[in-house]
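dude i think i finally got it to work??
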Amino acid sequence: MTPRAASAGAPDADPSATTDPPPGAAAQPGDPAATPTALGQPLASPGTTDPSDHPDTTAPTAPAGPPGSTDAPAPRGRISGAVWAALAIVYVLWGSTYLGIAVAVETMPPFLSAGARFAVAGVVLAALVAWRQGASALRVTPAQLASAAVVGLLLLLGGNGLVVLAETAIPSGLAALLVAIVPAWVVVLRRISGERPGPGAYGGVLLGLGGLAVLTLPGLSGEIRLWGVLTVIAATVMWSLGSFSSSRIPLPANPFAASAYEMVAGGIGCALVGLGRGEQHGFVFAEVSTSSWIALAYLIVFGSLVAFTAYAWLLHTAPLSLVATYAYVNPVVAVLLGALILDEAVTWQIAVGGAIVVAAVCLIVSTERRR
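look at this
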């Protein structure tokens, strides 16, 4: 999931944008650093989501484009080439964060590597914001800073960090498909808060839970480690809570500044958990493979920065119903990359359960679009 989108990714990523877009911009899913962001990602949201990555659609003074961009947003009445290009970036990069995580944790500790990813990405993003928009763009009140820290911990530590841990035990493609259930949890949270999402959304939740049950079968049968499956499910709940709360608490008005603070907070949180788990014991830098270093650099640059800024820009430029389609494209990309590059098996449970979850997300997205 990518940061608040947004992952991270969430994996790092922010499927939550399909129902109740968050107000800042941290995915993934895989990069759940989604709100941009991700779980995986998804990220963040989203991953990453990974969530690394969910943006702020309610910010009153949101920037016209990503840090460094000089282009004004395209008119909302037409879909420009830039919008399609940004969508392609989010589709592919956030979907690929699950693969990146799987390669990184081959020789790196899960929480310490996630902490390094988000802390570095957050600092770089803050520097870009200060360079392009001035230091004043980073000014926040204590309440806004605390809110950004809470959202960052929910999305990136709870959401993306748990996905990273789970990918030490389960295939990256399966993790991505499990993360895709995030929009269903957001619908449940909205109903608990007193909103009425509508019959179509409820149908999507029930369908999604059915798909989740099918995806859990490999763990119940002993084909994969059940704790890995349950860890991703816990990550999706944390990511959903972060995405849901981000639209209800005071966050920095500038979505990129908000995401920078969230990523730094999430990175510190992941690092502290890693140290608490003793991941530093026995860890030797010289034993980290070249492929893991490349994967970590890829997650920082492409998963948490490039994809995040593209997603944040899209939320201020393109129709939300179009942007939300990443929630059911990312898992497909993740499964294909896992099968092609890591030779991950696509069993009938993964194929059927994944298809059901993607259909559920599609139903929720279409219902919200009509509403």
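The first strand starts at residue 42 and ends at 43.
im so relieved honestly
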